[in-house]
Every structure is written in structure tokens, then in C-alpha cells.
Amino acid sequence: MRDSTAALLEAxxxxxxxxxxxxxxxxxxxxxxxxxxxxDASLAALPDHGGLETFEGPSSARQISLFSEDGEYRFLxxxxxxxxxxxxxxxxxxxxxxxxxxxxxxxxxxxxxxxxGTLEIENLREKLDRQTGMYRRAKMIHDERAQVLxxxxxxxxxxxxxxxxxxxxxxxxxxxxxxxxxxxxxCTVSPESTIPLLCASPCNHFVAECLVxxxxxxxxxxxx
Amino acid sequence: MSIAPKPxxxxxxxGHGSTQNPDSSTPYFEHAEEIxxxxxxxxxxxxxxxxEPSMRDAxxxxxxxxxxxxxxxxxxxxxxxxxxxxxxxxxxxxxxxxGKTFHYCLPVGIHPSMTGLLLARAREVAPDxxxxxxxxxxxxxxxxxxxxxxKAIRDQVEHIxxxxxxYAAVCxxxxxxxxxIAEWDKLSPTPNVVVVPFFISDGLHxxxxxxxxxxxxxxxxxxxxxxxxxxxNPHHLRDKQLFxxxxxxxxxxxxxxxxxxxxxxxxxxxGA
Lengths: 224, 272
What we know:
A: Gyrase A, domain 2, two-stranded parallel ribbon, elongated, B: alpha/beta
């Protein structure tokens, strides 16, 4: 049985200090942790946290990550619009894991599975083919339209910070775009110090966008 | 009902979630936090259809080899019988896959203990009214596509009628099928009426659609007028005194119903 909490502690002790937009700092002999937006990391490191709003324990993680700075509902947690101005104090690695699972749901586990070589990747066709109900028609989307949609949807607005691991189909890789080449971590930090955000399967938001696009497209694909 | 601690098992609470309404998933996280605080399971997690983590990604949250899956849904139907089994790759009450054993429990809304929660919510929203002069209406969406969603409500009405709670009348009513909630005054032979929405989450239906149908709000306003709508009881409308509650799923004791479903699973499938 995997022990994700122990794996996380080992990773942090080995130098991992970042996930998505969040900075992870250790204190008290690496047994306690501070989380903050990475742009607030220097303030969070101060004893008085430099005026950041301080939260004790992981229970506020969902509330902090629920809305962006401009009040937009963040139903996709990897969007690069996490609000600033807070620091979270966590007194155990168990609490650190609970907090990270709310800020970036399942990201830790996906990274550990990817590291172990057990992360199952599901391509878009597999995902769409198993849809039922109102989403059944999403599978009608043409490959060409799906390629455009990846570039448009996954990088729209603040953009999703996940690294896309899937393809359109086994024979149809994603064409290069800012969305399909996202590394899952900021280019300003080293991969060794980061828990990457991975996208192993098209998300349900993308499936919903495929449905909209499928309804709008002409009956036969256009030749590029 | 109480369950024995399961220090080597995980509890996975499955909800619908929303890409529009930030309050939609709040009850699920509150129920998870409540159960987590009791220390009964090694892990307690949530997953969703419309939010993250998805049901398919949920396996990455879980370390334990044994997982109890409880749908935090009000009825059996499309989601509990088709979507959740498909997404979690469940083949029956117990499924062994990827080195884990998944136990698939029944949805919270059909558990008999929901009756007590509905009565408690009705008393809470109208503490000073005499039940013998009051009609209790349990309301839901209603759709010709899924008879099970109305069955869960009709069953609760039957349970309440048999409970001896003393209400002059108890009935079901729906947004989109008969009996219509818009005709709540005609369904109620009493001067007092209590309406409890049979949904897990407060959302557009309980914030906006039902208040408009009741006549509390003149028209559907801007998105998510939030919980203010529940704070102005009683409403004096159509020559009656109307009390309107938030969705039953926002009740913190739903956490106990989740545990009841785990308990019942063990009773029915493991002979515990």
C-alpha cells in the first residue's frame, strides 16, 4: 500500500518546494510547513508573515482556492489565477497533504503514480467514447476541431497549468501549442523542486466543450 | 446507528458538483470534514462529476486497499446506476481492481434515516408553528426521465406520515411534474406551510427557481442570489404563512446518513 503522506514528506525534505502556484516552506526541523502563493513566499517566510492573512490548518484551503482575485469561480483548480495575500500554517505532513489535495485535487497522487510508471493515460477518443446521456454526442467532434479546442480551451484566460499527457487518439498526437506543450510547472523553477500538475485524461470541462463544438461543426470534417 | 472504526479503509464521497455554482460542492466537503474529524476512516475524500477531483482521478487520492464509495445523491438513477459505476469501474456491490477493493453503497437520499432529518429541518425552519395546523411539502425537481427521483420523495412522504410527527398534511411536489410546487397553496389545507427542498446542495433550483415558483421572489434574478432567500421566514403569501428551508443535503447530519449507508453495506454484503 502506498503511503502518499510519507512520500510527500520525503519529497519536501529532498527539496520540493513548489506545486502549481503554491510555494511550500518547511520550518521547525522540517516537521511544519507554510503554504502561500509563490509570489508571496518572501513575506510568508517572515515571522509575522508580512501582513498576509494567516490560516492555521488545512480546512481553509478550499475557501482560498474557490475564487480568483477578481471573484471568478475556479472550478478548475489548476487555472493560473490562485489568489494572493494568504499564508497557511500546517503542523504536520498529514495536514500538508490534506491542504494540497484541496488546492490541487489528486495532483500529488497522480505525480506519485507517474513517477512509479503506473499512471494510466486516457486519450480523448477513449474518454468521449464512454460518455452517455447528454454528453454522448461529444464523440462526434472531428479530430481537427478537437485539436483547435485543446489550444483554445486549455490555454484560455489564465490558462490551465497541467501538463497534458494524452493525445487525441493512439495515432493522433496533439499538435504543438501553448496548451499542449505546458510542462506542468513554471519554467522559472527546476523540475526537481516541483510537484508537476499532470493531466492524464481530458477533464469533464473539456468534454463539455467538445459537446458544444460537436453541435456547431459541419457534418463532415473540413480538409485542412 | 454507529459504525466500528475502519482504520485501514478509505471513504469516498461522490457528488455532482457544478461549473457554475460554487456552493454546489460545499455540503460534500462539509460532510467529509465532519466524518474525518471522527477518525473512523484512514482517509476521507470527495470526488465529483462536474468538479475536481473527477471520479476517474479519485483513485489517485486513495492509499488504502479498501474503499467505501457512498454516492451523496438523493436518489437512485442515472448517476448512481450508470455514471458512477462507469467512471469508478465498479462491476457490482464489491469490485476488486488495481489492487483495491471497492464497496459501492446506496445513495444517502434513500436511507430511512433521512426521514428524521427532514422532520428536524421542518421543525428548525418553523419552530413555533403547530404541526396540526401545518402542511409539510417535500419538493424536488421531478422529471419524466427518471421515476426514481420522485420515488425517493414519495417514500419520504410515506415515512413522515407514518412517523406520528403530527402534521395536518404531508405531500410531495415538483418543479417540472405534477403535483407542481407552484400550486403549493392549493396542495395545503392549512394556514401554515413548510417547504423543504429534497436536494443535496443549494443551487439555482433552491436559490432561484423554487422561490419564484413559490412566489417569494418575483422573477429569476442574477445568478446565485445565495442564502439570503432562506433568511426571511415566514413569508405571508396567498393568505398563508409559508416557511422555506434550504436544501436538506446541507444538513450536517447527512454525515451520519453517509455512515449509515456504510453500516448497511456491511450488514447486507459482509455480514458484519
